[in-house]
Amino acid sequence: DIAQGLGSPSCGKDIGRFLTFGQNMRKSSALALRKDVPQEERYIVPRSTPPPSSADDPLATPLLRRLPYRIRPKPVPTTVISLLQLEVQAIFPKFRRSIMSSVEALFAALTLALIAGAANARFNTSYDRNFRVACPGGQILKAIYSVHNNGKEDRAWRLNCDEAPNEASIPTCLWTGYVNDWDGPVSFMCPSNYVMTGMGSYHNNRVEDRRFRFKCCTQRGYKTSSCSITFYENSWDGMLQYTVPNGKAIVGTTSEHNNRYEDRRFKFIVCDFGQLVPAS
């Protein structure tokens, strides 16, 4: 019966349908397997890159050598990129402002240091401190600069020197005593035919004033002449800046003090200084 059944035409048709069904099932299973693999987990091996060998990896097996080894990177969603761009745009201005603030602070500190250095170089006295400045031999006071500080209620001074007129060496010199009282006027002139070559002073914080003394020098055979007095060379709390005209020398000064401003104003007496002309 079995042999007869296998040899019948209907049985042959059934076996053919069964074989066709099996082939279709294998194809469908393979296709389903490929479709079920997620995109980011598929492996791609560039043609230009050879697979690793057992020499590179002692644990490699023929099976491992046939397996691909490079993974395609998972694409970053556009939304994430946009959020990162927004974050950078938000952070960068703050970072830039922080950098600029640091640079500005550093620049300000350097500027203050330079100003302080320039002030020290410009003035040879300090607020509230005693001083005595004298020109080298053969030189006279040529320029006087001074600035007032309202916090200290005092002046800083710079005295510049230059060669005495008419090649005078003025070797004979003297220092005076202090020529004024606290809050009192200064009315001073060097001895006859002497010119001013230095100044000394000390400050009192209680009365916010200074007392002054001066150095005067002369040379035998030289005399002062054609003297005049200047206007006040500074205003209250203002800068004093006076330069002696060529051929002349300072021989004296006058000053008055103001308790409201705790400051002084100055005038200067200047004269020609030259050799005596023998009488004919």
Task: Summarize the SSE layout with pairings.
Elements: H1 2-7, H2 9-36, H3 62-66, H4 78-122, E1 131-134, E2 139-149, E3 154-163, E4 172-175, E5 186-189, E6 195-204, E7 209-218, E8 222-229, E9 240-243, E10 248-258, E11 263-275
Antiparallel strand pairs: 1-6, 2-3, 2-9, 4-7, 5-10, 6-7, 8-11, 10-11
Report on this model:
This protein is an alpha+beta fold. It has 4 helices and 11 strands; from the N terminus they run ααααβββββββββββ. It has helices at 2-7, 9-36, 62-66, 78-122, and strands at residues 131-134, 139-149, 154-163, 172-175, 186-189, 195-204, 209-218, 222-229, 240-243, 248-258, 263-275. The strands form 3 sheets. A 4-stranded antiparallel sheet has the order 1-6-7-4, with no helix packed on it. A 4-stranded antiparallel sheet has the order 5-10-11-8, with no helix packed on it. A hairpin with a 4-residue loop joins strand 10 and strand 11. It is elongated.
